[in-house]
Fold:
Amino acid sequence: MSEKTNVMRILSQKKINYKSYSYDPNQGLSGNDVAKSLNQNENQVFKTLVTVGKSKEHYVFVIPVNKELNLKKAAKSVSEKSISMIKEKELLPLTGYIHGGCSPIGMKKFFTTVINETAKDFETIIFSAGKVGYQVEVNIEDLKKVIKFKLDDIV
Structure:
């Protein structure tokens, strides 16, 4: 892969080993399609979702591409009464990322981040490298050196 995304630069800067993948973003791929096109386990490929709580705080949830975020469990996980997905048009100004290219690493500011607990079932997880068409695979322990997160049951 010739192009390095900001996420890859951050991982390299922190001396974290990662594998990068690319796929054709023009195929309008869902997360499941991305996992299939990369020949990866759908349970190991994660998507990054940005939400807003009743308190107006924003939260990031990272879940397997083949699962749905359980809003009740997610709200409980971050001690909110309720949470909802942010509107797509709010994503870029808030995070610096566009829909389909949102990564838990390298957002404009840090938000409380929760990764679904199934991530611990794998040595590495795969998620967006911060640009549509690019993914990175990172060891979950190494990820702790880049972002703060907790593992919880949120699907």
Remarks:
- The two ends are 32 Å apart (CA to CA).
- DSSP finds five helices and eight strands in the chain.
- The chain has a mean pLDDT of 95.
- The first strand starts at residue 18 and ends at 22.
